[in-house]
């Protein structure tokens, strides 16, 4: 096999980026891997009610080569859509990436960017800090042919370690949790730190369900509530700061509340939005009234806390079915020390997107009843 040309080869000069991205979906023991000409897609799910998706764009790698074999079947040749798909042990993959001591920066007791909404101090980094030491570590991924192991080679200061992870045939019945992109009724973009802090605070009461409530017309405009636990219900509300209009955006069809509680149209026809949000679009169907309210199992939402801690921003989306999507943007900010392509020229950005999807609770009063929209 060593003499054969691999179907896929990718080289990264920073194994920490790969580890951080994949650790976000480390809640499951296995992951489905799909190799494409644009990047690698990892998918992990549990009981078909929560799913984590990570797409490692080829721009994250210093080199990325995808050579589909000539012996493809007729259907693949006609559709030009040969994309190897297999299952690997996600826990083994993460342990492999930690061989040279990659720290888990999102561990509960480790500092991370979501412990505070204040910007970090770049001056605290030095050539002897852990992130700086990780920059000279390279990682090579190779997949030679259908059914072959996924080969991972880590190199650091002349020491090379190669691991081969057994691959398994993917279940043809696997499906993504469906998010109706043409029926989105809620889209909220905010700093991920705000969401992480809110979920952490609510988790202190050990709730069984998380209720998301959003409205574009009345306060609270956005609220997260934890209920069903041994303690009383707790709520975190994202409100509009008094005298703040920085989040107002032209929306001629929206109304706002006056000081006396009555509804009136602003002179500039602008809508109110929670101060912490960058985008706040809530448009429930008439059957829901003016407020969107949906509940999810709290333990499932907590599976996304690693992504909340690592990400810079989060896009919260919900469709008519109640499926919730939390799409996280992780910007590794490697401007001066990032990957460099062979022959010169640095990679313009090192950004990874992690998408979590959750199936809603069908009965808000029963924390144990979780609906399965895929059946």
UniProtKB/TrEMBL annotation:
Keywords: DNA damage, DNA repair, Nucleus. It is found in: Nucleus. Pfam families: Rad1. GO terms for biological process: DNA damage checkpoint signaling; DNA repair. InterPro entries: Rad1_Rec1_Rad17. The keyword Transmembrane does not apply. Its main location: nucleus. Gene3D superfamilies: 3.70.10.10. Belongs to the rad1 family. This is SsDNA endodeoxyribonuclease.
């Amino acid at each position: 096999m060593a003499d054969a040309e691999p179907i896929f080869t990718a080289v990264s000069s920073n194994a920490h980026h790969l580890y951080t991205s994949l650790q976000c979906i480390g809640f499951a023991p296995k992951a489905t891997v799909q190799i494409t000409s644009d990047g690698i897609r990892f998918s992990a799910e549990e009981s078909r009610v929560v799913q984590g998706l990570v797409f490692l764009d080829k721009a994250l790698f210093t080199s990325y080569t995808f050579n589909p074999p000539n012996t493809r079947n007729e259907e693949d040749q006609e559709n030009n859509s040969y994309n190897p798909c297999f299952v690997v042990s996600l826990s083994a993959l993460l342990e492999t990436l930690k061989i040279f001591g990659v720290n888990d920066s999102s561990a509960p007791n480790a500092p991370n960017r979501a412990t505070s909404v204040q910007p970090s101090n770049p001056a605290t980094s030095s050539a002897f800090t852990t992130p700086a030491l990780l920059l000279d570590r390279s990682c090579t991924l190779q997949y030679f042919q259908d059914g072959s192991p996924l080969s991972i080679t880590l190199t650091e200061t002349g020491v090379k370690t190669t691991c081969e992870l057994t691959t398994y045939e993917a279940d043809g019945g696997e499906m993504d949790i469906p998010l109706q992109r043409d029926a989105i009724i809620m889209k909220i973009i905010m700093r991920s730190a705000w969401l992480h802090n809110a979920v952490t605070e609510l988790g202190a009461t050990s709730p069984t369900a998380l209720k998301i409530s959003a409205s574009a017309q009345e306060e609270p405009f956005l609220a997260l509530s934890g209920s069903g636990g041994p303690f009383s219900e707790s709520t975190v509300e994202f409100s509009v700061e008094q005298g703040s209009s920085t989040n107002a955006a032209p929306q001629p069809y929206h109304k706002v509340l006056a000081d006396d509680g009555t509804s009136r149209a602003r002179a500039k026809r602008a809508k109110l939005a929670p101060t912490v949000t960058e985008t706040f679009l809530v448009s429930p169907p008439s059957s829901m009234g003016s407020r969107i309210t949906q509940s999810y199992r709290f333990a499932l939402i907590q599976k996304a806390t690693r992504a909340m801690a690592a990400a810079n921003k989060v896009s919260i989306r919900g469709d008519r079915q109640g499926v919730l999507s939390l799409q996280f943007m992780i910007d590794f900010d490697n401007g001066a020390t990032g990957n460099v392509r062979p022959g010169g020229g640095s990679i313009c950005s090192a950004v990874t997107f992690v998408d979590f999807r959750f199936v809603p609770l069908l009965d808000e009063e029963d924390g144990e009843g979780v609906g399965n929209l895929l059946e």
